[in-house]
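SAMPLE LOG
Freezer: B-3
Tube label: C17
Construct: single chain, 394 aa
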Amino acid sequence: MILSTSLLFPSLLLNTLALQTLVADYDRDLRPNFHNGVTDEVDFGLHIYQIGPLSEGDMSMTADIYLRAYWQDERLIPLAKELYNRSNNPNASYVNLKGAYADAIWRPNIYFVDSMEEKTPSEVSQSEITLVTTSGSVVSSKRVVLKTRCALDLTKFPLDKQKCPICFSSYEYMDSEQLIKWKGGAMEMDNGLNSTATFDIDKRLIQDTIVSKWGDNVYYTKLCVTVVFTRKYNIYIVTMFLPSISLTVLSFLNFWIDKCSVPARASLSVTTILSQITLNTGLANTYPSGADIRLADIYLIVNFFFTFSVLVEFAVVSYKQHPPPNNTAAAVTPDTAADAVKWRGARGRRAAGFWRRHNADVISRFVYPPLFLAWNVGYFAFSFHYTGRFTHWA
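STRUCTURE (predicted):
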């Protein structure tokens, strides 16, 4: 059946014979320079096509990438020349290996470090392309959707910057057999890839080469490219900072309300405290999960204590304004009614004079607002410096 089909289609017969020749003289399990005892050098390039949103739940990043490998395999020169001579495009400088040809050649053994899931995009019919020149140079480009672990540091939330590496290494050959390294200028990001829903993406990729020692003179190289994400914080100004500041400033109005208006002051203090609790609880349900204390938590807690301290100040003022009766006063009260009137009048004048000289509300008016302003200036100055946002703007 194969013979008759080959007679009807001569090109199929030639391709079959060429493949059989390759299989007979070629061992895909041996690296190109195995018999020569020379180290095979494989250069890698990486193109990031798309990046999915970071997942704070499982600490992962999803990326759609093209991984390109460049190496020399002189065993493919006869096949490449034969296929090149039969091609209909004499101006081409390479031969595109497909199907059985691509499956029959040696490839670098590479695995993605910290990979959680790898899959081929469903809309792509061919995820890997292999090109061979007549001089034996091989270029392999593979597209893969990779879900990899990313250790997110949420302590600086919502002004955080995250660094997520994409690393790969050889799982079969040590550096003395196969040396992998970055190809100069072959690492890039798609031009339209600037941001995700919650992060801005730095276009400057950070490449790194890590050499690990696993024994006596046994070294393995790991290549990494790090993507830097800067969180968009504008939405948190509207949903967190401004509401919390507004509620805290609103609680300061207590200092301008007459101390005798107990219902008004009590209702305003309790309302602002409950509003702060509702705001903090609602925001906690929408923020990234984590056990660490974040910058946002510190800010909300301090603002809540500002609001709560206003209620404490009102309680102190109310207590001083209407002190409870003193049972021990009966032992020192005057004997006559006239002396009692004079004694109470003098006592009241002394108390009134003290509060005129030391009015807690007046003092609070000049202490709380400047202190709250200094807290906000210090917090944001420290946060932007601590998270490197000033450097990012520069």
